[in-house]
Amino acid sequence: MSSSPAGTETLVERWHRGWIAADQLTSHYEDGYLVVDVKRPHRRAEWIATDEANATAVAHRVALKREPTWLSVPTHSPEAVCRAVENAGLVVARPDEAFMRCTLTGHPRPSVPTGYTVEVERTSVIQARILSSTGEEAASGLMAVVGEDAVAHRIWTEPEHRRRGLASVLMGALVHAAVAEGATTGLLFASAEGAHLYARLGWEKVSDLVVARNDRADVQPWVDLGTVARQACLDDTTGLGPDDVVEGEREMEGLFVTDEPGFHLALGEALLGPGRHFGRTLDELRVHLAARSGFTLKKWHQWYVASAAMPTYFERVFALLNEYGVLDSRLSALVAEHHPHFLLSRQVRRWYQAWCKTIGRKPRNPSHNMLPGRDGEVVVASSDSPNYHVSVNTEHADRLVYPTIDVDDVLTYARLRGRPAGPLEKFLRTDLTAPTEVPEGCTVSVTRGEVISVRITRDGELVGSGTIGVHGEDAAPHDISGQFEVVLGVLVDEARKAGARTGFVITAEPGRYQGWTQVSDVVILLKP
């Protein structure tokens, strides 16, 4: 392998100073090699090869470390570096990243798309967020200014807000603030996907970047075990003692949280250290949270692993941590946005707020799981714990509207409670687009207010009518009669003019909503 070109080593060290400032880390040199003290359970340290000629030597040192340790190698020979670090006993985690730089003067600053706002805050670093019109965080990122260098870090766009140019807007806002503080050069490590975005903004690739790790899991010896063996490990852990203090911001590694004992082992290590637990069950966890919840779980790395592996238990954990206010607000919002059950719940609540306009009901606080609809009707806005929701509402609701991704579970508990089910309905959504053409000779009358009403006539005869409720960026059509497609098209157009971007509906006739996408099934439970 050839040595890095002149200047690369200095740039890497300058980048690292920005990284440790952004993440509030420390670093040191060990036998002449640069080491960042990450101190995460599965990434205790990261070595940085500031000269790729030393990559093999550094890789051998990382392989001998007894703690989980990573290695980053900026290089112009990524394939050769990958072979070298693998021969040293490391695992290549990311072979195709890029080290990039940019002269910040004249950096593009795209305009903010309609419906979004940008917030920039200066603390120890520059923090930027892009919010949707409903106040939800759509994108976020950091930039640390060290001398004349600005290092971008944690640039992220939420999946449902992608392909709208938000990342470019975010970078423009961060760079603008950094230039105001005297920065002239931008530096960053980019994923393969991110490198394309930055290149369009004028960033140039200094070199490729290979990221590798050793194969240690000494901090969590249970990670390769099955559930039964993990439970045995959990049984052997030590609980909370009278002198233990759990406070401040904490981080939990979630890569191996694939079952219930794995969660309690990981949480115990995050709060108390290896071999400790903060409750072996949810009931024990609740007791400890009630007594000692003076900490914040700032990060739950790879939370989506637990979400996919054990969705029901994950939801209960999430609800419990939220109940005692220990989840960082941004982490809580992120999880609620993307966990499938929570995503469904959130969309049901959005539909409910708009739908209530059409039935003349003041919507209940949408944080509740059981939302009153028309007389005797209850909408369930939580798809977990069907036994609880069916049981609680059996005697009080004449009609239970239950959007769910687990139809069989809901029907099973309904049968146990003697609650008959009506025909299955569908919960649909769509992005509101261009209007439908109104047939020639028709006259459209629109009444706008809390709810938008539409009447379409031809030669004095009623062709069709309907209403649509709008709440923020969400709309819910209701009570459509006559020429369905024409009326729906006009309603959607009027809602779009009123600022709505997304339509939701619960219907027994999904085929009439051409182009709408199914979110979930909807079980209708009738009075016993």
Give your account of this protein's structure.
The protein is globular and about 90 Å long. The protein has helices spanning 8-23, 55-64, 78-87, 166-180, 192-200, 227-235, 260-271, 282-291, 303-309, 311-323, 329-338, 340-359, 386-393, 407-416, 484-497; strands spanning 26-30, 33-37, 45-48, 69-75, 91-103, 116-122, 126-132, 137-146, 149-157, 185-190, 204-213, 248-253, 295-301, 370-372, 377-380, 399-404, 425-431, 442-447, 451-458, 461-471, 474-482, 502-507, 517-526. Strands 1-2-3-4-11-5-10-9-8-7-6 form an 11-stranded mixed β-sheet, with helices on both faces. Strands 14-15-16-23-17-22-21-20-19-18 form a 10-stranded mixed β-sheet, sandwiched between helices. The protein contains 15 helices and 23 strands. The protein is of the alpha+beta class and 528 residues long. Its EC number is 2.3.1.-. Residues 88-226 form the N-acetyltransferase domain. It is an enzyme of class 2 (transferase). Pfam families: Acetyltransf_7.
Q: What is this structure, in a nutshell?
A:
This protein is an alpha+beta fold. The chain is 33% helix and 31% strand.
| Share of helix, binned | 25-40%
Give the tally of β-strands.
Answer: 23
Radius of gyration: 28 Å
* Low-pLDDT residue intervals, each spanning 5 or more residues: 1-8
Q: First CA to last CA: what distance?
A: 76 Å
Number of helices: 15
Average per-residue pLDDT, rounded, comes to 86
Enzyme class: transferase
Keywords: Acyltransferase, Transferase
Protein name: GNAT family N-acetyltransferase
GO molecular function: acyltransferase activity
